[in-house]
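Hi support team,

I'm filing this because I wasn't sure whether my run with guanosine-5'-diphosphate finished correctly. The job status page said complete, but I'd like someone to confirm that the output block is well-formed before I use it downstream. Pasting the exact inputs I used:
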Amino acid sequence: MTDYRLPITDYRVVCLAGGVGGAKLAAGLAEIVPPANLTIIVNTGDDFQHLGLTVCPDLDTVMYTLAGVANPETGWGRAGESWRTMEAVARLGGPDWFRLGDLDLATHLTRTQLQGEGQTLTAVTRHLCSHLHIQPAILPMSDQPAPTMIASADGRILPFQTWFVRERWQPPVRQIILPEDVKATHTVVRALETADIVIIAPSNPFVSIDPILNVYPIRALLEDVPQVVTAVSPIIGGQAVKGPAAKMMQEMGMEVSATAVAAYYGDLVDLFIYDRQDAGAFVGRGDAVALDTMMLDGDGRLRVATDVLQATLEYLNA
Ligand code: GDP
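And here is everything the job wrote out:
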């Protein structure tokens, strides 16, 4: 039985997160780390303009999950969603390949309006979070646009959402292209400069975590500042729980395994958490711990977050 009363109150924790996998761990962490000590830095490489609106899929998934309003079936979008606007867009011959629910649209409308008034994405996200009664800080990795592009094996260069949603992540990936010269905000830099523990959530390493690490100077701060960087494997039992991580690994010539994820993060990570299902197969250089990392519901999120923090504190105090 896990002891949920961790002595975590003295540590400042930063979590790097993409969408669904990241949001689940972030929500678990939010239950045990005091809000003033928890910052979640979120990938914005998937952001794009659609129907004239700024859409930030990973920020929204993290926000909705922490606010308890996410759709429990999909893990993204809002619970109790309706689609009347999208149906009307389709009837008008508008672009309906990226579906925005009626409730979800309220987020994109408000964000786009506030940005139009001159607010940064960081300020807009703070505004949205406060109205959703979210206490921990959720920060976009940058206030600058930082679009992730996918170079497909058939020679095309596709914006991330075109590849992911419109083409249902089917075109084989040759390379992931991340933008140059994107800078982190002061708020992100300050959070990392004062972090004791950084946790890399079980998000897609290539299109959720790498875009964050690519933002200057996030990778360098991770190398220098925190006492410990812990990463959680998104690959369980040699497969992705969801989404294209495993397919991408195959297409980029990697073995699909927790071992390969650990090797990919390399020295950046001090403590690697992989799933017990992979215990027989895992081979890693540094410190690594096997845990049950599947988060199927709220209890699972709390359990995994607690166990990950516990393992991290044990590493720190060893
Ligand atoms: P996306 O932006 O919505 O694709 O979300 P992320 O990048 O944050 O998460 C996708 C990754 O999370 C996938 O590679 C999944 O394998 C992984 N994932 C999803 N749920 C879980 C879970 O419960 N446990 C673990 N360990 N990984 C998960």
